[in-house]
Structures are given as C-alpha cells and as structure tokens.
Specification:
This protein has about 425 residues and is of the alpha/beta class. Helix content is about 30%, strand content about 25%. It has 17 helices and 21 strands.
Length: about 425
C-alpha cells in the first residue's frame, strides 16, 4: 500500500513483503522527483551489522542517478566499528557501480572529519531533559559537506541508545567524530538501554541527533527501510527528509520488530548470528531481550564464533561491564574514559545498583558462551559458560527458558 506521512512517501507496512520490482520502482520514482540533476550525491549506507538488501537498493539508486548526478560517493556508516575490506564491501554493496566511489567512514583519522560547530550547554540541557549540561562539538565525515546532497539508505530497528535507529542516526553517530558519538551514547546510557530501547517518538538522544543534523549544510534525504529481520526482504520503505522518512518507518518497525511475552522468562538464550563478529556488536543479543528477563534471571549470549570483546575498543577489557550507577557514583575514576565505551559497558551489563559498601548488584546475570577465553570474560565482570556444553534443543525444552534465534534485531518486551 502507499502512504503519505507528512513529508514522506511510504510503500508497504506491517505484515507486508515487498517484491524487488516494487522496491526498484519506488526508488526510481522517488529519486526522479528529487531534483538531483547536476548535483553531487553522497549515499550513506550501513555496514554489515545491519540486515539490509543493499545490492538491490544501490542498483536502483545507481540507475536513478546515472547521467544525472555529477558524482556519487557511497559512504559506509561505521560509527566506531571496524572498517570493511574491499572483498566485504563488494559482497555487502553489490556492484561495482560505474562512476561511484566507495569509502569507509574512517572515524579514527582526524583528517577525514570537518567541524560544523557546537551545540551549546543550555541547548544540550534542554535536549537532554537536564541530564547533561555542557557543550558538544559537532564533527562528521567531510564527504558529507563536500557533496550537494546526502542520501541516507538504511533500515530502522529498535535501538538501545536512541529508541529506534535510522534516519539522522546515519549521520550521528554513523559518520560522525568520536566526541559526539561518545556524548550521544552516554546520554542514552544515562536513560538506560532498558528504558529507551523501542521508545516511540523523539527521545532525548534522537533530539540531540536531529539538532546536530540541522547543522549539515548539504541537502538531506533518506530512503528508510523496514527489513524482515535476518533477511533481505522488506516490509516497507519510505522516502523524504530524514526526520519524516524515519518516522514513517519507525511506525512500521514498532509493529514488526517487537515481540511481546505474557510473563518474564527465568533464562533467555540469545543465539547471536555471525554478522556480529565481536562482543561490541554481538551485545545486541542482550539488549533486545533484557526487558523480558525476570529479576534474578539469566541471559546466556551464545556465540561460539566470537573470539574477542572488541576489535576497535580494547579499553572495554580494562573497564569491564558495569551498571550505570557504578560509573556515576565513581565518576572521578571514570570520566576520563571514552563515554561511548562506558555506555557500551552499561548496555551489556544491564540494570543494576551500586553502593560503596554493598558493591554492585546486577538485576540479571549476563553469561557469555562464546569463543572469548574464560579469564578474559571473568576479568570483564561477566559470567562464563563453555559454548561446547550448550545444547540449544535441551534448553528450549526447559520450562521458563526462552531461546531466541538470530538475536539482535527483534526486541522482546512484556505486555
């Protein structure tokens, strides 16, 4: 079905599956009317940690822009993830596409970034609902400002930092400098993953991201998508300004990517797919199930293929995994660390309390059944389980145990 959502055009919806021809026609139609003739276009896309049929979509985008755009650059929104190799990019993006340049967002190289300005302390306090009051510098990949138009192409899922991913999140943190990445993630951690994940509408983190995006001088457009989790099939697609296109797909994602349980589970086993190749990304298997675990219960993150905690952030192994209040009540000890690392720490440890005398108490137990060595797991303040001892069929047969296949994209909640 076709929908007009205040500035966005949408096809599909909850329970629908679009065929390739529908998707191609939609992309061609939307871009045909987007006044792109004689413009340079930067196409911003996700990395391989997101389910998305990029070969289909980029082929249609390339067809729509061929002979019209003066140049096209495809920029992979890594955030602070590891860069993709040429072989990985070919598989992930399809192509090659004649006349297109493909770039990783090299967030670790200052020369690839440009500063757009600051969001002042009073505005930060307003956007964060009083949680933070200090200025933050807004920097992002210079390719964004060196093109006339920026086209975001990417999916919308429930998200542990912002509520629902997608839209302007592909700029911040997708192709941003580390300061605002850390800042936005710590704001989400202050709210806590369990409270913000799957929250509809403009959350404080989304408000901060939208404010930062308003400083981008290039014209911003977005092709947002609702992907059938773990596949290349699309439930819906929307096109328009990032704010409107995102909102149209977030409405569908909220009806598509959330499963409701009538009662909490004592144990949840999250089976993490191989697209998450370290615990930094594979931790989504915890985020998406934390809300349905009973107090005192356990989450087993089952991922024998994961052999390290983080490819890009070894700092997390020194800090370990702790609840939010562990850091807040010892802020002098931890404030100098990257706030994005502290945020990730709280997201995987989940809700809990900390008292200097009583110590730290997590609401649930987090157990890694991965290829990460036991001493590394325990030193990081998590429980260890030998993955070879895990029998998924036996666990699934146990009363009060939930086994989640292809974990990381679908959110589980209590009714």
């Amino acid at each position: 079905m076709n929908n007009t959502v205040v500035g966005a055009d949408r096809i599909g919806g909850p329970g629908e599956i679009l065929d390739d021809a529908q998707v191609r026609e939609f992309v061609l139609r939307c871009l045909a009317g987007a006044e792109l003739d004689g413009r340079s276009v930067c196409v911003i896309v996700p990395d391989a940690t997101r389910s998305c049929p990029l070969p289909l979509l980029l082929a249609a985008v390339h067809e729509a822009l061929d002979g019209r755009a003066t140049r096209v650059t495809v920029l992979v929104a890594l955030g602070t993830h590891a860069e993709m190799t040429e072989a990985q990019l070919r598989l992930h993006l399809g192509g090659p596409y004649a006349g297109c340049t493909v770039l990783n967002h090299e967030w670790w190289k200052p020369e690839t970034l440009v500063t757009l300005g600051d969001i002042n302390a009073d505005r930060v306090a307003e956007l964060s609902e009083g949680r933070l009051r200090q200025p933050v510098r807004v920097a992002l990949n210079r390719a964004v400002v060196e093109h006339d138009v920026c086209l975001v192409v990417g999916p919308v899922f429930p998200h542990e930092v912002v509520g629902f991913s997608g839209g302007n999140k592909y700029f911040f943190p997708g192709v941003a400098g580390q300061e605002i990445i850390d800042f936005s993630h710590w704001l989400g951690a202050l709210i806590t993953s369990a409270d913000i994940i799957g929250t509809r509408g403009i959350t404080p983190v989304r408000a901060l991201i939208d404010q930062a995006a308003s400083l981008i001088p290039s014209r911003r457009l977005a092709l947002c998508l609702v992907v059938r989790s773990g596949t290349g099939e699309l439930h819906a697609a929307s096109f328009g300004p990032p704010e409107a296109a995102w909102a149209a797909c977030a409405d569908v994602s909220a009806q598509t990517h959330v499963r409701y349980l009538d009662a909490p589970a004592r144990r949840v086993v999250s089976v993490v797919p191989v697209k998450y190749d370290d615990m930094w990304t594979g931790a989504k298997g915890f985020y998406k199930v934390e809300p349905v675990v009973a107090d005192g219960g356990q989450v087993i993150v089952y991922a024998p293929h994961i052999t390290r905690i983080s490819a890009m952030h070894p700092e997390i192994e020194q800090i370990g995994y702790h609840c939010r209040d562990y850091f807040l009540k010892q802020w002098d000890r931890f404030s100098h660390h990257h706030w994005g690392v502290l945020a990730h720490s709280t997201h995987l440890r989940g809700a809990g309390t900390y008292d200097p005398e009583q110590g730290e108490r997590g609401r649930v137990t987090v157990t890694l059944a991965t290829g990460i060595p036991e001493d590394v797991v325990r030193a990081a303040n998590l429980d260890y389980l030998d993955p070879s001892s895990v029998d998924l069929d036996l666990l699934a047969a146990e009363e009060d145990t939930l086994v989640v296949a292809q974990a990381g994209e679908v959110l589980y909640r209590l009714r």
